[in-house]
Design brief:
Layout lengths: L7 E4 L5 H12 L3 E5 L13 H12 L3 E5 L6 H15 L4 E4 L14 H29 L2 E6 L2 H5 L5 H21 L4 E8 L12 H5 L7 H7 L10 E5 L2 E5 L2 E2 L11 H12 L5 E2 L6
Parallel strand pairs: 1-2, 1-4, 2-3, 4-5, 5-6, 6-7
Antiparallel strand pairs: 7-8, 9-10
The structure holds 1,4-dihydronicotinamide adenine dinucleotide.
1,4-dihydronicotinamide adenine dinucleotide binds next to helix 1, helix 4 and strand 6.
Length: about 290
Amino acid sequence: MSGVQDRVVVVTGAGGGLGREYALLLARQGARVVVNDLGGARDGTGSGSAMADAVVEEIRAAGGQAVANYDSVASEEGAAGVIGTALKEYGAVHGVVNNAGILRDASFVKMTAEQWEAVQRVHLFGGFHVTRAAWPHFREQGHGRVVMATSTSGLYGNFGQANYGAAKLGLVGLVNTLAVEGRKYNILANAVAPLARTRMSEDVAPAELLERLPAEFVAPVVAHLLTDECTDTGTVLVAGGGRVQRVAQFVSKGVAFAGTPTLQDVADRWPDITDMNASELGTNPLG
Ligand code: NAI
């Protein structure tokens, strides 16, 4: 096979925004797409089948193949339902795009445990549950592609988004280990931080900036990571408005103390410890 032709790809939260663009492009490229969406509001309240159904209709009207699923990714049972739809309808699952998401913004001093938990449940737990349900199938067939939707709010921080930022960077941590564990089974895992005008971002960035960030610009990057030809794993991309970049962690040359340093030793060498001029791409020092 080549590209995403005939591959069965699950896109969560594909009833609108970025997920819809991913689903439309994947279907145009010949993939069979599970369009999952709970159909709720931006804060995750409510539900309905109309959003996912509309995208499935759009794909079918254009001659593509798609099926709707309305389960919540936030629970193990919901995720089993999402992957179960792929297996029941198409007999396989080859890729998952963990895109479903909600917002419950509040400054940290005002953030409630409920706001914290609701966001972890959809983004971080959702990414886990859906990928976990697909993983044995990926291993068995020696092929799997995982894309996590991360965010610059996690990579860099953003006011009012402690819950969201933590969940989104948690998904990068998950990708890092999935890349290690998946490699020998030809399972690749990567993350994309999109920048796009959607209902989620409409009041998070200035309107003039959002104008230049149509959601469709991000879709080819996500689709590339799902192709048979893609060999990258464990990478993080930022994509928006036609610009696509890789983001990575760099580690400073640092200082190797011969013995236990004193507090004063650390303070004295602080400029060398934190100097990023001779930094290199970071790898796990424990092997
Ligand atoms: P959106 O609100 O249009 O899309 C999210 C979709 O997920 C909605 O259709 C919603 O119904 C669905 N959803 C929510 N909870 C769900 C659940 N429990 N189960 C199944 N579906 C559920 O927003 P957008 O912007 O398209 O976001 C897509 C992803 O991209 C999200 O993960 C978001 O965090 C991420 N992202 C978006 C950015 C942007 O600039 N728009 C920036 C950084 C990340």
